[in-house]
Predict the structure.
Amino acid sequence: MAGKTLAVNKRAKFDFELLETFEAGLQLLGTEVKSIKAGHISIKGSFVTIHDSAAILTNATIPAWQPKNTFESYDPTRPRKLLLKKAELNTIIGSKQTAGLTIIPVRVYMTRGKIKLEIALAKGKKKHDKKQAKKEADIMRETDRILRGKESE
């Protein structure tokens, strides 16, 4: 899963333990594609729901490409269908129901001219888990800083 990253959900790895990731396409309007390619998308606070055996991206914001040239009923936070293979969708539905997991968008990126969404099956972290993760990141940052300082001597 490579390509140019267009948007990242920074809170995803902090608030959740990511168990398994999937690549999904997005069902978009033409103006939404232009807007996303220009980097105008936010997946902060968005989530994926399952309705009628279809994955739906909810609460993602894609502003109008040309606000004055957009039809009046355009909703920037409208639900958007995710395009997944049937086997992947069945895996996600089964895991979500049995383990009580949630599905969150991790990042939006382009690969071979197509806009893709990386989603993950995730388990929510407790407050003490978040503190522990922050402490470990601080230790790693401090260690890297010290090692870089010794290399320059």
